[in-house]
Amino acid sequence: MSFVEYSDFIQDGDVAIVYLGHESLMPVKVQQGAQTQTRYGVIRHSTDLIGQRYGSKVTCSKGGWVHVLHPTPELWTVSLPHRTQILYTTDIATITMMLELKPGSVVCESGTGSGSLSHAILRTIAPTGHLHTVEFHQQRAEKAAEEFKEHRVDHLVTVRNQDVCQDGFGVSGVADAVFLDIPSPWEAVKHAKTAMKRQGGRVCSFSPCIEQVQRTCEALADQGFEEINTVEVLLRVHDVRTVSLPLPDFGPDSSAQTEPDAAEKAPPASAPVQTSVSLKTTTPPREIPGHTGYLTFATKPRT
Amino acid sequence: MADNGDEDSQYRIKQGDYVVLKRGNIFKAVQIQPKKKVIFEKQWFFLDGAVGNFYSTTFEIVSGALQPQKLKNTDNAKEAGTDNRNIVDDGKSQKLTRDDIEDLKEKGLEGQEIIQHLIDNSSTFKDKTEYAQDKYIKKKKKKYENTVTIVRPSCRILAMMYHGREPGKICHLRYDTLAQMLTLANIHAGSKVLVFDTCAGLVLGAVMERMGGYGSVIQMYPGGEPVRAGMESFGFPAHFHDMLHGFPICRVNALLAGTLDTTAKDPSAGRACFFFSLLKLSEMFIALLFPEETEKLEFKKIFYVFVFVLQAQERLVKLEEKRKKLAAAAALLEGRNADGLVIASRFHPCPVVMGLLPFLAPSRPFVVYSQYKEPLIECYNKLKEHGGAVSLRLTDTWLRHYQVLPNRTHPLLLMSGGGGYLLSGTTVATDRAKPAGSQRAEEPAPKRLKLTDTEG
User: Fold this and answer.
1) Which CATH number does A15-71 carry?
2) Residue of chain B whose Cα is closest to the Cα of A4
3) Domain with CATH 3.10.330 in chain B
4) pLDDT digits over B203-216, tens only?
5) With an 8 Å Cβ cutoff, is A104 touching chain B?
6) pLDDT, mean of residues B160-174
7) Three-state SS string across chain B, please?
8) What are the residue boundaries of the tRNA (adenine(58)-N(1))-methyltransferase catalytic subunit TRM61 C-terminal domain, all occurrences included (chain A) (predicted)?
9) Region B183-192: what's the mean pLDDT?
10) pTM above 0.90, yes or no
């Protein structure tokens, strides 16, 4: 198992994702002799997990069952322990494509936060790329480094505990892409430029507030970035439902009274009257995320 | 310029490269070929002038040829007004006539110079606010600039190009939806991905770009031949094509049933060729026996037979290649251990996903795109019934662009109405016996609405 390569069977030391149903997921560190509590009962790692195929159904002690899934950055994003507000798959997907990330890309990122985007980047740039991620909070930086190791992706990433606005990314002239998710991204724009390849690259800044976006766009223009572009992406989920709509009763059909003779001779057809119609449709959830942040992209020209 | 020549050469435009022409948000994919004329935004020109320059260079179109653009001169601060209360739009503020402008164009004036002339001859320009002046200049630039930038193709650029230019060819798949698909399907180097794409090969190319030449992609295709035009526009290096396989869907059932025969050589083609050559040879002998034919004609006949036999050989070789490729693709599919499935087509998605899902290993993602929502509702219900998939989600994304300028920041006036829908999920191991009701309902029971006393 690793977050950048699939495997078929669960092994001791793997991180597996337990799917409990209803979009409820739980990460589990697989260990010989360990146990995990779920609402359906206990999962015994040695018998229920180790050696089983990823995707298997596991029956828990109370009789209920769950599925054990191979970890992916997407499953990790919705099950990881939050240390900060994270980026969700919708924004991550847009960022990945708009920064033109692919195997071999060298990426600089700040702040690392809880590592949600970091894992997605690592998956995309493996096996030949590298991620330089900067986090100014010491414990978060350490936790991230720990997780990368556990998830077997540490060879693809370098974590630096420093302030990107003061000290930059710690590298220069190597990045194909830079991503900023910090309170004052305009202060880091010049460091982004330094970290990027001379021949050019892409940059992205994520900010929840429009004022931050304005200052960042100004800084990007000042530093000579081109194609500056701000978008926002929102996910709409459609919950599939079977609904039953009752039909109104307007009384017996009046057209049967136009030919009274015919009605007497032929008894009225005893067709069952439909009282409701069932149909399969979708409904939106009651509340949906209306805003995560604005994504500003730009291109660094050749310098 | 102490550049490392070798290192930089990969950043230069070369003959044969697949590139994208760009002006603002208008894109067009072309291949650089000598003496080839292309049309872009109503202008014809040769691409030869671009060769040797760096990618992302902006060129001026001068007399049908490309020249690198000279540096732009900065706009000088101009006199401006405060608001439009006194500006009357009578259509007479521009003193230059259409003919005057045509004359300027013919004289060979650069776009920027024409714009300067327009500004100088506009009676209301100096009364406009600075913002209105900016807007005016931007509008004129769009109309009169004759520049084109040549950029390297990428998923981002090609997806935007297809969506802007020919959305019908890609089932109206918007680029952000494509972005979601690539991430939700966990496309990454080293995996084995199945793609069913009738979007001109754009989705196929996007998947291949994210795999970087590692792993394998099997393109399932309807009909006789796979469509790969969109994929070719990516300009992948040759070794990327080695990871790409194709498998016709008309053989899927045979493969699943284990009855697909990829070993038998097709003897009929060889036999047909043999008999044809025999026929031709006998014709020739008859001609020889009756020497009233001239020598020249006999020679011609021998020549034709020779060519015919050669063509027959070629056909046999091609058939053999095709058979080998089919066998290779079948071998990859047989294991039913693919790592991902991506479907984006004009076909009804339900039978496509039900037909191809068996090829996926358990605990692997799949994504189905449809321009319409209802077919995916059907898919969702079918998959729920059938089992073998969890985390099913029907989604679409909403994309909005912003104009960010000092004191003029707001969302753009127009936005894309729709970008299509996605159904995503993860496979799980299926049980052999599935007693009814063993499935945990994922749909919460519909709530019965409380009726007030007044309602019937």
Assistant:
1) 3.10.330.20
2) B188
3) 13-71
4) 999 999 999 999 99
5) yes
6) 96
7) CCCCHHHHHCCECCCCCEEEEEECCEEEEEECCCCCEEEECCEEEECHHHCCCECCEEEEEECCEEEECCCCCCCCCCCCCCCCCCCCCCCCCECCCHHHHHHHHHCCCCHHHHHHHHHHCECCHHHCCHHHHHHHHHHHHHHHCCEEEEECCCHHHHHHHHHHHCHHHHCCCCHHHHHHHHHHCCCCCCCEEEEEECCCCHHHHHHHHHHCCCCEEEEEECCCCCCCHHHHCCCCCHHHHCCEEEEEHHHHHHHHHCCCCCCCCCHHHHHHHHHHHHHHHHHHHHHHHCCCCCHHHHHHHHHHHHHHHHHHHHHHHHHHHHHHHHHHHHHHHHCCCECEEEEECCCCHHHHHHHHHHHECCCCEEEEEECCCHHHHHHHHHHHHHCCEEEEEEEEEEEEEEECCCCCCEECCCCCCCCCEEEEEEECCCCCCCCCCCCCCCCCCCCCCCCCCCCC
8) 64-300
9) 97
10) no
